[in-house]
Amino acid sequence: VFIPQFVRYTSSRFNGGFVIANTTNTATTCNISYNSDTDANETNVALAGNGVIIRYAPNVANLNNGYNASVTVTCGTPIFGMYNFSAAPGTGGLGDSDITNNAINQ
Predict the structure, then answer these.
(1) 3-state SS class at 2
(2) C-alpha distances in angstroms, 2 versus 12, 18, 89, 91?
(3) Is 25 left (phi over 0), alpha (psi -120 to 50) or beta?
(4) At CB < 8 A and 24+ separation, what contacts does 35-42 make?
(5) pLDDT tens digits, 18-62
(6) Of 69, 73, 85, 106, which is least surrounded by CB within 10 A?
(7) 87, 13 contact by CB (below 8 A)
């Protein structure tokens, strides 16, 4: 799946996250490519049958602050993905400061 926008501390206040769900009961592994910060890439991430992988940008090792780019996730079984981002608590983001969307199947 392709996640068009994943953010970490953009404008000093927005962070994103994503969830990848295995739509089968077969365990597999996945590769996660942070397309503009390759030292954060993850390979052979375990994904249980009917399981999920969850990533929150501030918790992704080696992902640079200010990251505002796409992510590609490839797995050995069919998957579904969704992503979001919002203003971090206490940063003054008010109103419509949150989005959630489906990832794009490739």
Answers:
(1) strand
(2) 25, 11, 27, 28
(3) alpha
(4) 35/69, 35/70, 35/71, 35/72, 36/67, 36/69, 36/70, 37/62, 37/63, 37/64, 37/67, 37/69, 40/64, 40/67
(5) 999 999 999 999 999 999 999 999 999 999 999 999 999 999 999
(6) 106
(7) yes
